[in-house]
Design brief:
The protein is α/β, with parallel strands linked by helices. It contains twelve helices and 14 strands. Helix 3 crosses helix 7.
Length: 404
């Protein structure tokens, strides 16, 4: 422990990371650098500075990473139509590689020889943080207090904070019974009554969205403009990736969109029940598939769908910086060269419906061929007979063998 001279801590300013900060100073007798990231969690991050200063921290990093998060992590993931186990849009998972990257970069800039995080020993985040850190800085030391200390309950954490004079925001009656994580893509809820998979979430749990029942009786129509697989404008207004997500979060939340209740398989081996609000992501997934339906070659689209579960697992399990994820990303990005155009979506009481799609330059839809009317010889229907017989040949041979 004495070999650690300086550690960079992922610091929120809350109870857990404030206790970790003091514990690192006490246990490792080392200097601590704090890093606080704004990735769109909707809470002020600047108060973390005063808390860190009060605990004697000299090097404090507070950074607005919303645009980088949206542009370099969320948008590339949605080019692949990524969804884990058919339901989860990976809101927590995709934020971890960015935080891991900045932790090791700050360690290099400040002469730090270790990083630390507040993820527990039961969850996926410890894996994501540490795989990311080792991929980028193979010799970095990682300190995970929840795997080392005996402060295994909130009561013990509070007692430790009292003993060491750590200021903790205490608001009786206002503490949420849920463990929550939020960023531009989602907010998640775990713990409390959610530990019973049969228990329906309380309506008061949801922070972002109205219930579908309380959503407006009139639908909201939105035009999303795509360029190379990314949304670049909403209703004709050019927007940056982060502002695209902020705008869609507001529109989706107002229409009861993005709620999900999932039992998922964690990488560490257990099943976990969590609830999520992902308004922007829910809209983005539906609209992107609509844009691809018009502009992607059939076999390219099908190949992407075959690869997507593997790509999703890589992100969920913490392998964003792995060579296989990077290789797959190059292929995915190449497929998006002609994914250009506009999708009109209708948002209504929890539903995202595609109301229209068009691409002036890259549409593969040819009305002259697809029509039920006369097609001026573009498609000879008689050709289909030979096509069917050739494709049925192996089936007919097998069926003849089964004759009595």
């Amino acid at each position: 422990m004495s070999q650690v001279k300086k550690v960079v801590l992922a610091y929120s300013g809350g109870l857990d990371t404030s206790v970790i900060l003091k514990w690192l100073q006490e246990t490792y007798q080392c200097e601590v650098v704090t890093f606080t990231a704004d990735i769109g969690q909707g809470e002020e991050v600047e108060p973390a500075r005063a808390k860190a200063e009060a605990m004697g921290i000299k090097e404090i990093y507070i950074e607005d990473l919303r645009e980088e998060f949206a542009r370099d992590y969320v948008f590339p993931m949605f080019r692949a139509n990524t969804i884990y186990e058919g339901e989860y849009l990976l809101g927590t998972s995709i934020a971890r590689p960015l935080i891991a990257k900045r932790l090791v970069e700050i360690a290099a800039d400040t002469g730090g020889d270790a990083i630390s995080h507040g993820a527990t020993g039961k969850g996926n985040d410890q894996v994501r943080f540490e795989l990311g850190a080792y991929a980028l800085a193979p010799d970095i030391k990682v300190i995970a207090p929840w795997r080392e200390w005996d402060l295994t309950s909130r009561e013990k954490l509070l007692a430790y904070a009292d003993r060491h004079g750590i200021a903790v925001d205490k608001k009786p009656g206002e503490k949420s019974p849920y463990s929550m994580d939020a960023n531009l893509l989602h907010i998640s809820y775990e713990g409390g009554i959610l530990e019973d998979p049969w228990a329906e979430p309380e309506e008061g749990m949801w922070r972002w969205s109205v219930s579908p029942e309380q959503a407006p009786d009139e639908p909201t129509y939105v035009d999303l403009t795509y360029r190379k697989g990314d949304i670049v404008a909403i209703d004709g207004d050019d927007l940056t990736p982060a502002v695209v997500m902020e705008t869609l979060n507001k529109l989706g939340s107002a229409n009861g969109i993005g709620r999900d209740d999932i039992v998922e398989n964690r990488y560490v081996g257990m099943k976990s029940r969590g609830c999520y609000e992902t308004p922007a992501g829910t809209i983005m997934l539906k609209a992107h598939r609509a844009m691809e339906s018009l502009t992607l070659d059939r076999e390219v689209a099908h190949l992407k769908d075959e690869l997507m579960p593997r790509y999703a697992s890589l992100i969920y399990n913490g392998y964003w910086w792995s060579p296989e994820r990077k290789m797959m990303q190059q292929m995915i990005d190449a497929s998006q060269e002609n994914v250009n155009g506009t999708v009109k979506v209708k948002l209504y009481k929890g539903n995202v419906c595609v109301a229209g799609r068009k691409s002036d330059s890259d549409s593969l839809f040819d009305a002259n061929i697809a029509t039920f009317e006369e097609d001026a010889g573009a498609y000879d229907q008689a050709d289909a007979g030979g096509f069917i017989k050739l494709n049925a040949l192996r089936l007919r041979i097998a069926a003849r063998l089964k004759r009595p």
